[in-house]
Write a structure and sequence with these properties.
Elements: H1 4-20, E1 27-30, E2 33-35, H2 41-61, H3 67-89
Antiparallel strand pairs: 1-2
Length: 92
């Protein structure tokens, strides 16, 4: 079974490589195949920046075998924050 953290490190390396080469014409997907970007490069780079930030945070806070639990905890925490925010500002 592959390591969760090793997968995150590998994915982060790929995303950082894509960010370092913004004028690429295609994006590798797997087994030598490539895909043309469907979105403009600046929008696609924003997605990659967000993914890189999330992967870095997961690598620092997540422990081996607990990456999914960490993501679920973040989602619960952000969901409760959003719910409180909506209740507080619903009258406005």
């Amino acid at each position: 079974m592959a390591s969760d953290l090793a997968f995150l490190r590998h994915r982060l390396a790929l995303v950082e490589h894509w960010l370092a080469n913004p004028d690429r014409g295609s994006v590798p997907i797997r087994s030598g195949r490539v895909r043309r970007p469907a979105q403009p490069p600046n929008r696609q780079d924003l997605h990659y920046k967000r993914e890189a930030r999330l992967l870095r945070k997961l690598l620092t806070q997540g422990k081996e075998g607990q990456v999914l639990e960490t993501l679920e905890a973040w989602r619960r925490q952000l969901g409760s924050f959003l719910r409180q925010h909506r209740e507080r500002y619903q009258a406005m």
